[in-house]
Amino acid sequence: MKLVLNVNGSDRMLELEDRTSLLDALRDGVGLKGTHAGCEHGVCGTCTVLLDGEAVRSCLMLAAQAEGHAVTTIEGVTPGPGELSIVQDSFVETHGMQCGYCTPGMVLTAIALLRDNPAPTRDEIVEAISGNLCRCTGYGQIVEAIALAAERLQRSNTP
Ligand code: FES
Ligand code: FES
Hints:
- Strands 2-1-5-3-4 form a 5-stranded mixed beta sheet, with helices on both faces.
- It contains 5 helices and 5 strands; from the N terminus they run ββαβββαααα.
- The protein folds into 2 domains: about 1-75, Ubiquitin-like (UB roll), CATH 3.10.20.30; about 85-155, Orthogonal Bundle (DNA polymerase, domain 1), CATH 1.10.150.
- The protein is α+β, with helices and mostly antiparallel strands.
- The site of one FE2/S2 (inorganic) cluster has 11 residues, from loops.
């Protein structure tokens, strides 16, 4: 099957088996390894990417279902090579990661949350990341990271 996936603003022509998941298409077809594979059963949230700005589990979608939509991976959220977005930098600042395996999914989930709710409460942050598992159990710092990112983003949008 041939298809075109729009990933991080660029169209990528791919030739894949019909049953290829979006996760495998991104990692093996496009070559973007920042989207991590965890359970591959829709449970852990590690494989989260944005589809038209909404957080989705790329292991649960066929690549073909993403054709015609804008896919954003962790590689697409940086302002430029070697730079970090405000959300990523907030994770660094608050030690919101340990091994980093869950971090791309956490960051993309946070970006989707903050787009819809720029000033979330702590409970809303906890709820938003409740489908993302961190095996290093760094949840306290992850919540802190998202709260800091919300504060920074609000300040950066203040004229
Ligand atoms: S790898 Fe997709 S939800 Fe776990
Ligand atoms: S930082 Fe290791 S799994 Fe979350």
